[in-house]
């Protein structure tokens, strides 16, 4: 396998080749995602919701992110593995941000970190990049700030928010980020941002005018079933398929259909 690097991604944008990105939080899933040819694997703090059942991404800890990331890293042969810096590990000051990023790199073996925010976190981003750690930005809907907004509705519909987002994207490029995630914003705005920077812009609910797409794995394979935003395309309905398989197993155990003659010693 030829490994995907941050340079590969910037070259892909220059060559007009779209970037595919999905989340993974564990070894088995990451083996499948990497083997299927996904370019970037995100160890997202969405693990807080998907893996741990929390209502928001806020509770997940740095130790827990490192556990997930190290499991993913053991599986991956080709993809670039980006790890989310969780809430509370980079906002208070740039030195703390760098310490958190260093822990992720040393203890998980991840290839890059991602953090949410624009000019508020500029100094932290610069400090991390200065230490040689690639940073992916994240603008638009920022789940770690959910209590500031109160809802998960589309962001930057107002002109002043759109203007801030555009200037934040340019700031992120100047600060040295290798890519930016744009979450749940109007497609026209996302396209405009993608055209205004030379680093790749990866969208989730941001239309097709960007340089790549990211989805949460468990949502796109339909393992979750109560989260149904317009931007989500489900490629499987694993919630239903697994439910039937598991209830069939329960029936087979009860009726002593399982194990059969051939399935015993
Ligand atoms: O944590 C996550 O899964 C993310 C993606 C939705 C971009 O940040
Ligand atoms: Na995230």
Automatic annotation (TrEMBL):
User: Some GO term, biological process aspect, for this entry: which one?
Assistant: pantothenate biosynthetic process
The protein's required cofactor(s) are namely: Mg(2+)
EC number(s) from the headed UniProt entry: 2.1.2.11
User: What pathway, per the record?
Assistant: Cofactor biosynthesis; (R)-pantothenate biosynthesis; (R)-pantoate from 3-methyl-2-oxobutanoate: step 1/2
Can you tell me which residues bind Mg(2+)?
45, 84, 116
Q: Which residues bind 3-methyl-2-oxobutanoate?
A: 45-46, 84, 114
Cellular component, GO annotation: cytoplasm
Q: What does this protein do?
A: Catalyzes the reversible reaction in which hydroxymethyl group from 5,10-methylenetetrahydrofolate is transferred onto alpha-ketoisovalerate to form ketopantoate.
**Entries under PANTHER family matching the protein:** 3-METHYL-2-OXOBUTANOATE HYDROXYMETHYLTRANSFERASE (PTHR20881)
The family database entries (HAMAP family) matched by this protein are listed as: PanB
Family membership? Belongs to the PanB family.
This protein's name? 3-methyl-2-oxobutanoate hydroxymethyltransferase
């Amino acid at each position: 396998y030829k490994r995907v690097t941050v340079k590969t991604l910037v070259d892909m944008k220059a060559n007009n080749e779209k970037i595919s990105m999905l989340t993974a939080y564990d070894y088995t899933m990451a083996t499948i995602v990497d083997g299927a040819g996904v370019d970037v694997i995100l160890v997202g703090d969405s693990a807080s919701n998907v893996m741990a059942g929390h209502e928001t991404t806020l509770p997940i800890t740095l130790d827990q992110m490192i556990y997930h990331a190290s499991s993913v890293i053991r599986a991956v042969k080709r993809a670039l593995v980006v790890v989310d810096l969780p809430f509370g590990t980079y906002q208070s000051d740039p030195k703390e941000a760098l310490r958190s990023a260093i822990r992720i790199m040393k203890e998980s073996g991840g290839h890059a970190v991602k953090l949410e925010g624009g000019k508020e976190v500029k100094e932290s981003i610069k400090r991390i990049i200065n230490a040689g750690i690639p940073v992916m930005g994240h603008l638009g809907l920022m789940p770690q700030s959910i209590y500031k907004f109160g809802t998960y509705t589309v962001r930057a519909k107002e002109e002043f928010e759109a203007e801030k987002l555009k200037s934040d994207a340019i700031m992120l490029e100047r600060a040295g980020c290798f890519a930016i995630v744009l979450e749940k914003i109007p497609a026209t705005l996302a396209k405009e941002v993608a055209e205004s920077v030379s680093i790749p812009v990866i969208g989730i609910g941001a239309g097709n005018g960007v340089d790549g797409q990211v989805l949460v794995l468990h949502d796109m394979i339909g393992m979750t079933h109560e989260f149904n935003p317009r931007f989500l395309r489900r490629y499987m309905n694993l919630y239903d398929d697994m439910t039937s398989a598991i209830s069939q197993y329960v029936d087979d155990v009860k009726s002593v259909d399982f194990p059969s003659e051939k399935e015993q010693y």
